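Page 42, continued from yesterday. The earlier attempt failed because a stray header line got pasted into the input along with the sequence. Redoing it now with the clean sequence only.
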Amino acid sequence: MLSTAAASSPTPVLTGLPTARAVDHYAFTVPDLDQAVAFFTDVFGGELCYREGPVEDPAGDWMTRKLGVHPRARAHVAVVRLGPYSNLELFQYTAPGQVTTAPGPNDVGGHYLSVRVADLEAAEERLRASDVVRLGPTAAPGSRFAEERRWFLSPWGMMLALSGPLPPELPDRAHTAGRFVPDPPANAAGRGGPLGLLGVDGVGYTVADLDAATAFFTGVLGADLVEDTDDATSADRTDHWPPGAERTRGVVLRTGPTANCELSQCGTGARHRRPPRNSDIGGHHLAFYVDDVDAAAEHLRRQPGVTLMGEPETITAGPIAGDRWLYFSTAIGIQMELINMPDGLLPYETQTTARRATPGRLRWHDRP
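This time it went through. Structure tokens are written below.
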């Protein structure tokens, strides 16, 4: 069983993103922050760690320089720990020109959150009772891991993919294939709750150029390519696509010790060919925990297509004072973030027993 206290590499990784440890959080912009926090805490069993905001710069251009949004944009933020290994960062923005329709699964910027639960039938019953819409019929087992994946829409339209525990005969095969499979100890923090959550598998993004996106994740970030639909028959991957989505090529990447990222080529019927901004509904970014934000930033500065959004800075007040961070944009249309937090010394910890999920001693290429 996986533990973030498991034995780790003695030195930081020397390939990919310098000093990287793990995916720190998955970030999504939602229309109603209170609704989203209640959903992920009450239905999924997540723990609210802190809220902050408004984040704004009424007279300057800080919001544009640092976050890539309109200078008069205004945001409220909440962080929810979801399962033993993952954090969600949820934003509610008000901004001039905000797009209020999220991209669909065929569109550039389409996305979903993938989680694993102890009992799919019980989890679906719980979701249906919470105004969650089931998408499509039950997919017959037949994927590479011979497991079922079910698709849902949250009350505000965010796409969710649920899988059950691996069948007893398959864990070794799945781990050999290199994909992260949440399998926490029974007493792990964040496990269980009303949905029977085992953990977050990872996130999925629809991109304009799958080859370029895959090369960026593997070459610049140091992700491992686990699966490519070119290597499998279409029947072998029928559960990769949400119901109604075009069956385009996709890949699965292992992004650190406790996360996967699934990338899909946008469809020919895509309505949106440009990704959403952070301030748009359906905006999103992916954050990586690193030991040295400045060293990681220098690595990224040298990469074609990467634009650092200012310089690294350290938050000096509020619930996460001490956090050092930097956003960066990429040529593949996914905004990302570097982050290093002094967990155990953050101000929010004096106000709640909830704690962010951290990588502990794990490093990027550890495979517990």
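Notes: The longest strand covers residues 197-207.
Reminder to self: strip header lines before submitting.
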